[in-house]
Amino acid sequence: MTNLFTKLLSPRQAIRWLLLALTLLLPINAFASPLALGKDIPYAVMPDNSQQQTLDQAYAQLSHREETHTAIFSRGYTHIPHWLHFKLPAHFFAGNERWLVLAPNFIDDIRFFYRPEGSQEPWVEKRTGDTWEGKRGDIDYRFPVFRLPPPPDSVKGYEVMLRAATTSALLLDLELWEPHLFLQHAARTTSFWAFYLGIAAIASLLALTLAALLRSKRLWSITAVSSGYGLVACVQGYVAWVVPGIGLTLQHYLTSIFTLTSYAALSWMSTEVMQFKEKNPWAHKLMAGTALFTLLLIICVPLNLYQKAIYLQAIIYLFTGIIFLIACLYIWWKEKFQLANLILGISPLLLMLVSLSGLMSMLHWLPYHSSIYVIWQYGLIINMLLVVGTVVFQVYRQRIEALNKKKMAEELHFEREARAHQRQFMGIVAHEFRTPLAIITASLANLRQVSSGINHQVTRRYEKIERATERLVQLTDNCLADARLSASQLSIERHPHSLLALITSAASLIPLSDHHSWKLTQEKQAINARTHPDAETASTLAIDSALMRIALSNVIDNAVKYSPGGTIHIDLSRQQDHWAISIRDQGTGIPPDRAGMIFERYRRAVPNDSSRGVGLGLHVSRQIVRAHGGELTLAENTSSGCRFIFTLPVQPKNSQEA
């Protein structure tokens, strides 16, 4: 406990707690801008191509140069050290101490020399950099801070020589602060970045948790983008500040590694968010390949080839950005610019454009501007929260759809059970109807024999009773056949049977109609089974005659019911490997919007018309024919009639009999 108390009250920790406390104590209007190199302090610059120039040699060349620069110092990725010369006039100090802050943190080595202007006094040297093993500054802070005393009253100010060398981007952001204003600035920026990284940690943890729970590649790619927050922490100096000692070396390498991984992760996230794998496979392969290649460039960091890796990665990333833009435009156009896809695509697209602009400015291809990095840092948070929120919404919607599908599956299961019970009930009822219908049919036959030729009106009444009885028999046959066909195991009882005889039996109802007649042909030649016994024998086929008679009767009965009158043409023909039975009526045809559903169970050609049946006949007929390995189709549908064709294979297909 004592050790912990001592650490909390150590000078270093005391300064950190003070900076955080000042966030709440200092007023916002106390914040002021510092004097910045370039904008307020012009400078002369010279590359040290030999990398061997001494301070005096560099001063001799720079002190006489009249050309000065007023923009922020940036030279891109270069191994060549640069010397800078500038002056700090006495009025910058106003007789008080000033603090000089050097940034960013990824400069390897910075040597800072100053002395009174015009004097020959020895140079005062300060040194820092993320590879410098000595003290980084006079103040314990995230960036190197040097304390400059006010120049003597007899001099104009200080003249400064600065040498900067790095294996990363050569960029120098030098600021001169009043101490009390810097404390306010440090407190606010430290609190801001602590809040920023806290939000980043929460968003990253949320993405990681969702990715682990939902096992979504999209969420894993969003989690990978968190490497960008690691880069922000390194650039802002938190790694070296929080982890003393090894933290500086760790920050040096992590800056390079996070730079490469953040671009690779952004490419991966972009293709996953836009679902390129499903919507645009070629773009997915290109972007995934470039992301993987960028990751492999990490090996260049320990080999001291980081600058070459960055140039190569920049070219790849520029190409990737163009591909992503083209692919997004194509998908948006194809999906008619749906709002959800626009939001998902614009977010990574903007972040990619901003990060690409930042990369190009670090390479000195574009003028450097700090606002690019501000937008990029905010964009990381907004992008992750937006994408995670959108993905969570999509997951929620998928969950609702899954629940609806589950509910629908349960309802479908109950419906199937209900229909199974219904068919079972209809089968039982139909079976019970068979006995009284058989009695009625037999009694009617006896009555017709007794009253034959006696009374024409009585005979007509008997014929109507016979037609009604046959309708009931056909209905019960259909119910029994449907129950049998719907059974889990259906066995077709095949026996040789004449197709001509079967057609004649199935058409026996037609003569009972007052307005219809029928004509039987074989190969379009008129034929009569009684007068052509050879033709009857030649048409023998192994079938389940009871079921097949039901199938034929249903189609023939429909021809009678749905046509006002006329002749029903039935033709039997032999093809190479099958028999074809064509049944054509002279009705008004089937409405086009109903033709595609007439073979479905309980669907009729004329909806809401139960007087002509329950919509079971054609369904049962097709199922019977298919059970025999054949097919029943609607071959013609015109305003002058319909034609149905049965096709039955000559050789039974065993695989289709089950």
From TrEMBL:
Gene3D superfamilies: 1.10.287.130, 2.60.40.2380, Histidine kinase-like ATPase, C-terminal domain. Residues 428-652 form the Histidine kinase domain. It is an enzyme of class 2 (transferase). Keywords: ATP-binding, Membrane, Nucleotide-binding, Phosphoprotein, Transmembrane, Transmembrane helix. One of its GO terms (molecular function) is ATP binding. It catalyses: ATP + protein L-histidine = ADP + protein N-phospho-L-histidine. Its EC number is 2.7.13.3. Pfam families: 7TMR-DISM_7TM, 7TMR-DISMED2, HATPase_c, HisKA. It comes from the Bacteria. This is histidine kinase. It comes from Vreelandella lionensis. The lineage of its organism: Bacteria, Pseudomonadati, Pseudomonadota, Gammaproteobacteria, Oceanospirillales.
